[in-house]
TrEMBL record:
GO annotation (BP), single: proline transport
A family per Pfam: SSF
Function according to Swiss-Prot or TrEMBL: Catalyzes the sodium-dependent uptake of extracellular L-proline.
InterPro entries associated with the record: Na/Glc_symporter_sf, Na/Pro_symporter, Na/solute_symporter, Na/solute_symporter_CS, Sodium:Solute_Symporter
Known catalytic reactions: L-proline(in) + Na(+)(in) = L-proline(out) + Na(+)(out)
Native source organism of the sequence: Umboniibacter marinipuniceus
Compartments, record wording: Cell inner membrane; Cell membrane
UniProt name for this protein: Sodium/proline symporter
Keywords attached to this entry: Amino-acid transport, Cell inner membrane, Cell membrane, Ion transport, Membrane, Sodium, Sodium transport, Symport, Transmembrane, Transmembrane helix, Transport
Amino acid sequence: MDTYLLISIGSYFLVMLAIGLYAYRNTQDDVEGYLLGGRQLSPGVMALSAGASDMSGWILMGLPGAMFISGLSSAWIAVGLIIGAYFNYRLVAPRLRIYTELANDAVTIPDFLGSRFSNDGQALRTISALVIVVFFTLYTSAGLVAGGKLFESAFGQSYELGIMITAAVVVAYTLFGGFLAVSLTDFVQGCIMFIALVVVPVVAFTLTDAPFDSLQQIDPQLLQMTTGVSIIAIISSAAWGLGYFGQPHIIVRFMAIRSIRELPTARRIGMGWMIISVLGALGVGLIGRAYSSEFNVDIADPETIFIVLSQIIFHPLIAGFLLAAILAAIMSTISSQLLVSASSLSEDLFHKLFAKNASSSHVVVIGRLSVVAVCLVAGWLAMDPSESILGLVGNAWAGFGAAFGPVILLALFWRNLSYWGAVLGMITGAAVVLVWIKLGLSGVIYEIVPGFVAGLITAIIASLLTPKPNQLKLAVFDEMKRQLD
């Protein structure tokens, strides 16, 4: 490995571990402190933490790779994501922040859903926790695949070693620092990603002679968003935005901001960061196609175009910083997913199901052990380097969006959503996604569309046929609306 690259990457790892140590020393050793940071995040930290945990390795590898292959037709994913993220801030964030505090001070999404409908809500809490663990393990494996590919293509190290190093550093700061460490590292990682996604496409553009003419000569379809693209394909790509309403690692950030009055500031920061970052990712793929054609650069794997451009164009010391952006994207998402999975295993399953009298410190210990366990399973799943990063992320994103999205929206906006409506809606959404993938129908339309629609319809019909929430629960819903007004 080049000395300059080693210095840059080594420094990045040390900074992440130092933040983890700081968070460990400043985190209260109780469940709310470890899993939610005491609900004291500033708007800037919350916004960049949500953005960085959202934009995993796919924004620097998966999305540019799709743009490299298909051109502007892949931009519909970005359009859907931006719209979905905006409405997530507008619709979900304020209601969830208030409601989770009113609902027995819930610190996890399953805890909120269980408290929303009954005093124990065991079935709903257990099902939602299992959905989180299953899909987040798959999601985490996608991040580790990206880490393995980075070390293999950029540093000349083995794919397996890349997975192990990435996992080890993430587990270290997540294990000890909890939610505060994850949020603070996400903030730093979000800043690194932002800089990299502006610098790389801009510099590559200036070095390429008439890039759009080059793209026109390669394939005119690369510069077309609609020509040759079916309506179903556009719907499938834009439907990624539906997933935002059901992503636990993102919406849990809304629960942690210190005041609902600071949400508009967080929204402006978060959306500004996201729009520029996504446009930068699209630019990397598109300009990278023109650059590689003009300078006869062989791109064996389109998902590594950001890595190739960083190494060819920039001095190794700067390239090391830019490649650290990929690690930032990967690690910020993995850490968030590990913590949410650990919270479900420790708080929603262990504490609420098997050890109701366990002390808060005992639950935190189980949470830390869960971080290690989930990462080990995800690492094992990631050992196949042929897996597509965007494909793995797409499956997990659809699973969460269809299982949680309709239920979260209805729980926050429809007072008559019943307990069994939520349970059956969640099961239906997740099941349809899994069956759709198993039958190989993802090429027909993205699985989140049938899953989300099926989950929504099931939840509404089941709620109309089963008992409504009791008056005490409806009173909490009304109090949430009163505080919003």
